[in-house]
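[worker-b] picked up task from shared queue
[worker-b] task type: protein-ligand structure
[worker-b] ligand name resolved to zinc ion; SMILES cross-checked against name lookup, match
[worker-b] sequence length check passed
[worker-b] input payload:
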Amino acid sequence: MLRIRAQFVHPVTAPPISDGAVLVDERGRIAAVGPNGAVPTPDGAVRREFLAAALVPGLVNCHTHLELTHFAGRNSERDFSRWIRTVRALKDATTPEEFVRSAERGAASMEELRRALDRLRPFASSCLRLGVSPHAPYTVSEPLYRAVADFARREALPLAVHLAESREESELVRDGSGPFAEALRARGVPVTAHRCSPVEYLVQLGVVQRGTACLCIHCVQADQRDVAQLRDAGASIAHCPRSNRAHAHGTAPLAAFRRAGLSVGLGTDSVLSVGDSSLLAEAAAAGLEGDDALRMLTLEGARALGLEDEIGSLEVGKQADLAVLPSTILHRPPPPSTALLTLVAGRVVHG
Ligand SMILES: [Zn+2]
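[worker-b] inference finished, payload out:
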C-alpha cells in the first residue's frame, strides 16, 4: 500500500483539501482520500510526503501521436496540406518496406483492421482500451468510413476522427476543390463535392451518430449548426489549441462546445506540430486556469474518452491515477519539468 500526503489534495469532484492524503491499495485503487488526520496508515504502507505540492488526478491527454515523437523538429512546413505530405514522406522514409506493406494493407484495410484488433485484444485492460480511428475526410474514402463505422457499432468500439480541422478540408468536402482535392485527383482518386460541412458529412455517413462513442479531434471549422449536430450525436471533442494555432487553422469554438454540454478534453497532438507534450501549456493556450483548467485536464478529459468511471478524480474505488505537482503550478506558467510523482493505476511511473 502507498500513502501520499500533500500540502493540497484536489479530488476535483470535491473541494480542495489542505494537508490532505490519499491511500492506494494493493489493487492500485484509491482506498481513502481526505484530510491527513482522517486517512489511515495501515501497517507496512509506504509513506510519501510532499508538503509544498499539490496532489491531483492524473492529467488526461485526449489526443496525441506518440508514434511521431521521434520526428520532433523535422517538419517546418507552414502550409497545412504540404505539412501533411511531409509527415507522410517522413513516415515512408523511416522504413521503405513499410510503404509496400501499407499499400497492401490499404487494399485489404477492413480485413487488416479486424486482424489488428484480434492481435491487440489480449492487451486490453481497464488502462488500455481499443478503438478505431479512420483518420480524416482527406485520407478516408466514403465506403471506408461507412465500413469502419458499421464495424465499430457491431464490435461496440469507440471511434476517433480528425474532423473539421483546416479550411482546406472544408473546401474539399463542400466544393471538391482546394489543395487536398488537387492532390487526390493527381493520384487518380475521384473527388465529390458534398455541399455540406465536414461535421455534417460524417453525420450523414453514420460515423458521428448517437449510440456510437465518437471523439472528434480539432473541430475548428465548426459553426453553430455543427455544434448542435455534434451535441445531438453525443460526440465528444479533443481540443488541441496549440496544434490548431501552429497550423494557422483558427480557434475552435470551445465556449460554444461547453455551452452545448459537449464533453471536451485537451490534447497535445504530435510533437511535430507543437514541439512538446505539455498538457498544462494546452490549458494555458485554451485560456483556462486554476480549478477550471484542472477540471478539463482531468475529469472532463476522462469523460471525453468515456473513462470517467475509472479515472479523472480522486474518489474511493477509482484507479489510483494521480500526479503530484508543485503547488503553484495551476496558477503560474509551468517550469519545463513539473511532476514530482506520477502513478498510473497505482504503479509509480515517475518520481
Ligand atoms: Zn492528430
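[worker-b] attaching auto-annotations
[worker-b] Residues 63, 65, 162, 217, 269 surround zinc ion (CB under 6 Å).
[worker-b] releasing lock
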